[in-house]
């Protein structure tokens, strides 16, 4: 699954540790999510969407992101 976590996090100038703290997960979890090594649980995906003020599908997609995204 593709995701925009790195872009969303850097737009806000948050460190990986800051995002991890806001989500209540480890920094290693954030790293794994950003690198696509691990797909989030549904509750974590909802927490991410709430935190970034968008929909889950605005963060995660099964297809690679196209230039217009």
TrEMBL record:
InterPro entries membership: Cro/C1-type_HTH (IPR001387), Lambda_DNA-bd_dom_sf (IPR010982)
Example GO molecular function: DNA binding
CDD domains, A to Z: HTH_XRE (cd00093)
Boundaries of every HTH cro/C1-type domain copy: 5-59
Keyword flag DNA-binding: yes
Gene3D superfamilies assigned: lambda repressor-like DNA-binding domains
Keyword tags: DNA-binding
One Pfam family here: HTH_3
Protein name: HTH cro/C1-type domain-containing protein
């Amino acid at each position: 699954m593709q995701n925009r976590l790195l872009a969303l996090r850097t737009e806000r100038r948050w460190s990986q540790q800051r995002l991890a703290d806001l989500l209540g997960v480890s920094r290693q979890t954030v790293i794994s999510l950003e690198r696509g090594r691990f797909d989030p649980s549904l509750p974590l995906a909802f927490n991410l969407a709430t935190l970034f003020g968008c929909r889950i599908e605005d963060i995660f997609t099964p297809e690679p992101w196209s230039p217009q995204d």
